[in-house]
Every structure is written in C-alpha cells, then in structure tokens.
Amino acid sequence: MKVALIGSPNVGKSLIFYHLTGKYATVSNYPGTSVDVTRGKIKGLEATLIDTPGMYSFITITEEEKVAKKILFDEQPDVVVHVMDAKNIERKLPLTLQLIDSCFNTVLVLNAMDEAKRLGMQIDVDLLRERLGIPVVETIATQKKGIRQLKEIIESFRGNEKAELIYFNEGIQNLIKDITSMIESSYPVRKQFLAQLLLMGDADAVEMIRKEKKFEEIIEYVKKASLRYPHSLSYEMALQIEKSSSKILSGIVSYVLPEKGSLVEKLGELTIHPVFAIPMAIAAILALYFFAGVIGAQILVDFLETFFEDNINIPLNSALEVYVPNYWLRELIGGEFGIITLGLRYAFAIILPIVTIFFFIFSIIEDSGYLPRLAILMDRLFKVVGLSGKAVIPLVLGLGCGTMATIVTKVLETRKEKIIATVMLAVGIPCSAQLGVIFSIAPDITSMIIWVSIITVVLLIAGYLASKMIKEPEPVFLIEIPTLRVPELGNVVTKTITRLEWYFKEVIPVFVVASLFIWVGRITGVFDMLVSLLTIPAGVIGLPEEAAIVFLFGFFRRDYGAAGLFDLADKGLLSVSQIIVAMVTLTLFVPCVAQFLVMVKERGMKVAILIFVTSVIIAFGVGYLTSIGLVFTNLV
Question: Which of 31, 164, 278, 405 would bridge 394 by S-S if both were Cys, CB 3.0 to 4.6 A apart?
Fold first, then answer.
C-alpha cells in the first residue's frame, strides 16, 4: 500500500508522518526537481507513507505544489490523507473536495482540534463525515491524539462513498461534459476532473493530454470557452468550488465564546506586532546564531577538536610512524590531511556539534510556529536579492558554518532561491572560524568598518546579479501563520535524531572524499603547483608570496586559512592596508573543500564549479580594488 500525506504547509503533516513511521525515513530530491520528499514505512503496516511538499490547490503555483500534484498523478497512492488545520477548515475544505472529485481514496484529518476549540470553534465531525462520504479523523498531533485511529482507518480503508461533491452551474457543467467527451485515453484522475483542470488553465493538465488525438481541438475549445466570461474562468470555477464547500459546512461549524488567550497566544500576537515583531526577530536570530555559531561552532568545536587531537590524532600518528613505513600510506590515514585526522575529525569534531545544536534549535523554532513569522518579517528585505524571507535561516547559520548552511538551503522552496543563497554563502558570508581570527587581527575599528562595508556591498551585489542571471520565475512567497505553541520535547528530539541520521548517511562521506582529494593533490604535486599559481594574484593585490599558502589552506579548511593570516600579521609581514586587503580577499575567497563538495551534492557539479570560479574572480578583483582604494583615500 502507498499512502500520501497532502496539505498546506504548517498544518502538522510532518509531525503526523513521524508518529506513523517512527524515526525510520528517507529524505531525497524528487526526480528532476530540487524539492525534498520524505518517505517511510508505517509502523506495523505493509505501507509506504509519503510526506508530500505543501499544497494549497490542484491549480499549482510553487514548485513544491507542482511536486505534490506530480506525486499524486504519477505514483497514484492507494490512500490520500488530507491533513488540515481545523481552525482553517473553511479555506482548506475545497482541496478535500477536489481530491474526492478526482477519485482519490481520501481520508480527512482535522488536526490541532485543541486550538480550534480554544478559539470557540465547534465542528460536528459526524455530520461532516456523513456529507463527505469519507473517513474524518480528529487529531492533536503535538499530543499524539488520534494517530492510532488514523492508522486503523488507513489499514481498513477501501474507498470513498461519494464521487462528486463540487457543483458547477449549468454552463460550466456543459463545458466539462464537452471536454470529457473529447478525451479518449485513461488518466490517474477522472476525465471530468481533468476537464475541470483544463478549463481552469492548469499547465500540468495540458501537458498530460498532449498525446490525445483531439489535443488541438480541446485546447481551442478551452480558449473559446474562456472568452464567454467577463473575467477569468478559473476564478469563476474557484468561486463555485468554494460555494460547494460552504454548502457542505453549513450547520457543521459553529462558534461559541472563545477561551481566554494563553500567555503563548499573547506572545504569538506580539511576534507580528508592527512595533515588537522586529526586536523579537532580531533576538530570535541572535539566539540561533548564539547556539549554533557560538556554543556549537566555537565552544563545543574547540572542546571536541582538542579531545580528538589529543586522544585520536596524536596516538594514531605515533602508531603510524611505528607500524606503517610508507610515507604516503601514513598520510592517507593520518598526518595533517588524512582520512581520520582531517576527514573524520572535520565531520565529528567540527560539523557534528554545530549540526546537532542547529537541528535541535531549528526543530524548536519549527514546531513553535515562529518560523513563518520570521520569514514574513524578512521577506521584503530579501526580495531585493531574489530571495524570500525563509532565506534568513541559512544565511544567519552561515556565520557559524558555511557547510552546514549550504545543507540548510533545503528549507528554501525554489531552485533559484537555493542557488542564490548558495552563491551568497560561498562568496561573502564568513564562518565563525574566519570571524574569530578577523576580529583578532583587525588593526582598529576603522579597519573593521571598511571590511564590513566592502563585504556587505559585495554580498548584496552578488545576490542581486545572481537573481537576474538565473532565468527562472521569481519565488512565490505563500505562507500561513500558524498558532504559536510550546514545542513538545519528544517531537523535537525525534526530528533532531532523524535529521542527524540523514547527516551521518549523506554528509560524512563528503569529508572522507575531501581527504582523498587532498591526498591525491599532494601525491601528484598539484598542491605545490597551486601554491605557485596563487602567488601571482596574491602579488597583484599587494600581498607577500606567503599569502598564497593562506588562500590554498583557506580552501581546505577556512580556519586554516584564517590561522595562516593571523601568523603573517603576528610576524609583522603585513602592513595595516595589507591586513585589510587580506581580510577582504580571504573572506570572499572560495568556500572550504567540505562546503564545495556539499555544493556539488546539493546544486550539481556545473553550478558548484561556476560558483567556485566566480568567487575566485570576485575575491581577487575586490581585493585589488580595495588595495587601490586604500592608497588613494588614505583611510589607514
């Protein structure tokens, strides 16, 4: 059996998925897209559960909606579970009617029933079940209530009692009949429903019937039909679908005096208040950075790196010296860049603590319902560089760890947004290792202001140009504001563990590959050749030859590069202006090898190499302009 969870974002689908499947799930890109789809086995059933991306209607707008519809059409699940927030039943029921009308075996889940009751809503579930002719389950996913009943219904469900619940006026009904009569082939949905989608201008439906003998005739008929209405036929049909929904809900939903708002609900109102929302957003971002960027990327990383060095690297290297006579074999395993001493140390002692804390804090923010509020506040600002407000999460995380932040670009909805955010992370956002060293070597406050100003300008220009060069539609920012709630610790822990399992399976091999890459470079002499090549641009921007090693090490490990810059400054080999030029160039220089490999994995080799080359050009180009500017302005 194949079961699909359908519903708009922030209705509790993922939480219901975790309750039904446990922690055993796989996350992967849906073929041909950049959208993640989660699959798992329902505990105790021979059934695969698919947690589809957010979907509001069959007339899709975002890439996530298109993928959700494609899953329905291509995979034809045996049962479709439509999860909706009970508080928004009036707005969400039209999708339920479309699912039933298309002939999918549909189960309706009214989630967050406790919140609906607190608002004074009373829903006659028995009457709703009777009118729809499908199972209707009340759940409170945060408390695991109703999950057992839902599982039992999925196991025993055999089909809908009713097929047509959407009533169109006579004119539209005749249009649907005419188009249905012209469709000859069989499809995953009823021909009548496919005719509805065609009349509503759905591009996916048009593509689906392209092989029909009467394809041109159907398309011409739809065009002529649209001309009969003073406004959009799609709009007219949507109104009639909503009217059908309202008729079904008549006498089912009623309201009483709501309960007194809790402290959390009052706090939720403040998060969208025009005065208090912004300082609260700043506090939330700083808290996220503090936990992931300071506690994770600095305190825990320092502790674990020291532990790893003292208890693994040093004893291992000593053992290799005694038992492995071949130098290059020793360097493959240990040494400075070995699979264990660099690859696994990077994976377990550097990235893992940041990942763990971030996943935990992010799950809290996600389950609390605050993430959509934060995204809305940031949306207008981020639109300048072609991003939606959701991009605030990976970009802020980049100040802790660029590799982790590149992975987290998964939260963005479109391929265009993911590429723009990846470009900005690679080009101009320094990780905590770089920040710490830059703060320590900056000669004075003027130097810091110059550095911050240049990096900010370059970052904005890079994002803006990337948004214009990527010829894809601008991101459509559709988001609902869920109720602010106190997250359940068990749910947060389950999500964190599931995401960490993904990290161990998908990301750790990247660091092993990085170590092998470095080993091959050293054994073939490519490493030394690259140092020689980098002395040329380093000299052009006015830096000593030793700076070439700083840049190359910055690719293998950003903190290595930053540490090398610290050594040069500490030895007095750099003047004040040279330090500023080096700070700017190293910050803009290519991301570390781990981040690059994650870019390859997430964005593809072609995009990763393009970003890599672009960042090299930008780094030395801006470094050169900075050196000239400092000479002419005499700022330092």
Answer: 405
Contact 580, 636 (CB under 8 A): yes
pLDDT of residue 293: 65
Distance of alpha carbon 215 from alpha carbon 195, whole angstroms: 12
Q: 3-state class of 544 per DSSP? A: coil
Residue 565 has, within 13 A of its CA and on its CB side, a CA count of 33
Supply angle C-alpha 386, 390, 391, rounded to 5. 55
Residues 337, 515: Cα–Cα separation, whole Å: 6
Closest CA to 477 of 409, 587, 376, 348: 376
Count of other CB atoms within 10 angstroms of residue 274: 6
Cα torsion 405, 409, 415, 420: sign? negative
Helix (H) or strand (E) holding 629: helix 605-633
Q: What backbone torsions phi and psi does residue 26 show, to the nearest 5 degrees?
A: -120, 140
DSSP-derived secondary structure for 86-112: GGGHHHHHHHHHHHHHTT--EEEEEE-
**Nearest alpha-carbon partner for 10 in 141, 176, 203:** 141
Of 107, 129, 156, the last residue of a domain is 156
Cβ–Cβ under 8 Å, residues 50 and 67: no
Give, for 48, the enclosing helix (H) or strand (E).
strand 48-51
Residues 551 and 633 in one domain: yes
Q: Which residues of the chain have pLDDT under 50?
A: none
Taken as a whole, the chain contains a residue count of 636
Query: Are 382 and 389 spatial neighbours (Cβ–Cβ below 8 Å)?
Result: yes
Report yes or no on 56 lying in a domain: yes
Beta-carbon neighbour count of residue 47 at 10 Å? 20
* C-alpha–C-alpha distance, residues 13 and 92, integer Å: 14
Cα 412 to Cα 602: distance, rounded to the nearest angstrom: 12
285: its two tokens: 């971002």
Range of the domain at 198: 170-255
Q: Which residues are paired to 84 by β-bridges?
A: 110
